[in-house]
Amino acid sequence: MKLTRLTTAALALAAAPALAQDMAHDKDFWRDGLDQMAETCGFDHTGYVTDQYKAYLQSTMSAGKPPQIFTWWTGNALTDIVSSGLAAPVDEIWDAKIASGEYAAGTRDLFTVDGKTYALPMLLARWVMFYNTEMFAEAGIESEPQSWAELMEAAEKLKAAGHTPFEATVQDGWRGFIWFSEIMIRQNPEAYKGLHDGSVPYDGPEVQAVFDTWVDMYAKGYFTDPRSTEEAEDFARGKAAMYLMGEWAAGTLVDNGMTIGKDLGVFITPNADAGLPAQVIVEGAPILISNDAWDDAEARAAYECWASVDGANKWAEVQSIFNGNLKAKAPNGIVQEVSADMAAGGHLARNRWWEAVPSDLQGDLVAELSAFMLNPTAEKATEVMQNMQAFNQAYWDDQY
Predict the structure, then answer these.
(1) How far apart are CA 68 and CA 173, in angstroms?
(2) CA 70 remoteness from chain centre
(3) What is the CA radius of gyration of the chain?
(4) How is 202-257 classified by DSSP, letter by letter?
(5) CB 258 within 8 A of CB 241
(6) How far apart are CA 281 and CA 351, in angstroms?
(7) β-strands 116-117, 112-113 pairing
(8) Secondary structure (3-state) at 229
């Protein structure tokens, strides 16, 4: 397993007893919902800020003492964890769930490495554009944007009506990639895939086109202050008209006073080129179980509860999140609408940047993207592209 450099603080975190809690995660923003899931499924849980959590889990894995149950990411990040040999394969659970019709066979692929499956889904979230329907009406926007040009026209109308079009921040240190990857798949999905295997450079024309668009949007005043630490709450308070985020944010927005179908709507961001296939970024958040915990009846029961119909229904009830169980109730109208739109449009699923990029690059690259958001100029974009490619090149050179 490849490990990033660890700070003194991170090492201190790793010194904590690895099995002191049943479940470790970086989802503390869902603490209330997790508390209720813990009662339903019978586990304790400890949450960390994402950067600290990555250091904590990598350190405990390196020491051979991982938490009993823990969240991580799919893609390259999952492959790295599996390479430690400490995560238990859970094919037995998937075989039963697919046979019962609870899960689609294709969902399993997100959590499979070298032919074995190592995780259950905490969520399956499409990344979509939430919008304030009342602000749209005030600005004279009569329908959801069907093209990138219409999206920019809507942004201009909202700005003219006194509303900031888009909510976007660098909160918690990981969100810098959201708009970068969304613009990229809308402009050049093949180049987006190339970023993840090293075949497309971060200082090339494909990425330059993304930053040109992004810089222009900032210059026009389309984004909120990136320094806010209450991103979802700010959107719910009316500080912006649109909010690009995973479907899982619906529960937080409702908890903060919005009502689905009244002032909260959703649409899939349209492509910049009408000739591109319809597509949407999909996030699959995995929950893993250690080999030792797999042999512990109580830990295994708590783990399997996440994938059960009762567990999925409870998670949908308390956090308004869909975890892929087809026999569970849809958590909310947002999920229902996105599912219907995807079925009607034949949308392709694109793996989220965070999961697709090599895990050794995640922190450095997202820090650069966040730095751009804090100083969104053409000059800063050039510097960020060069820095990102330096990290990228060094990583891929080390692979061969």
Answers:
(1) 26
(2) 16
(3) 21
(4) TTSHHHHHHHHHHHHHHHTT-B--TT-S-HHHHHHTTS-SEEEEETTHHHHHHHTT
(5) no
(6) 6
(7) antiparallel
(8) coil
* CB within 8 Å of 394: residues ≥ 6 apart: none
- pTM of the shown model: 0.79
Q: What are the E-state strand segments in the chain? A: 23-25, 45-47, 69-71, 112-113, 116-117, 120-132, 166-167, 242-246, 264-267, 279-289, 348-351
- On whether the CB atoms of residues 264 and 284 are closer than 8 A, the answer is no
- Number of CB atoms found within 10 A of residue 359's CB: 23
Residue 84 is encoded by which pair of tokens?
A: 């430690």
Please answer whether residues 366 and 174 qualify as being in contact, where contact means their C-beta atoms are separated by less than 8 angstroms.
Answer: yes
Of 87-91, 115-119, 271-275, least confident by mean pLDDT is 271-275
Backbone phi, psi, residue 3, to 5° = -120, 140
CA angle 333, 334, 337 (to 5 degrees): 80
Count of beta carbons in the 10 Å neighbourhood of residue 369: 22
Surface-to-core class of residue 9, CB atoms within 10 Å of its CB (0-12 exposed, 13-18 middle, 19+ buried): exposed
Take residue 281 and report the two structure tokens written for it.
């970024």
Length of the chain: 400
Owner of token pair 């009993």: 68
277-307, pLDDT tens digit by residue? 999 998 989 999 999 999 999 999 999 999 9
The CB density around residue 10, as the number of other CB atoms within 10 Å, is: 18
Q: In this structure, what are the phi and psi dihedrals at residue 289, rounded to the nearest 5 degrees?
A: -130, 140
Q: What is the pLDDT of residues 40-64, one digit of tens each?
A: 999 999 999 988 999 999 899 999 9
- Half-sphere exposure at residue 384, Cβ-oriented, CA atoms within 13 angstroms: 27
Q: Which residue has the tokens 């109580």?
A: 298
Number of neighbouring beta carbons within 10 Å of residue 174:
20
CB 365 within 8 A of CB 296: no
Strand partners, 156: none
3-state secondary structure of 270: coil
Q: Which amino acid is at 64?
A: G
Q: What angle do CA 121, 234, 217 make, to 5 degrees?
A: 90
Cβ 254 vs Cβ 131: under 8 Å: no
**Angle in degrees, CA 213, 219, 224, rounded to 5:** 100
Task: Name the token pair of 315.
Answer: 């998670």
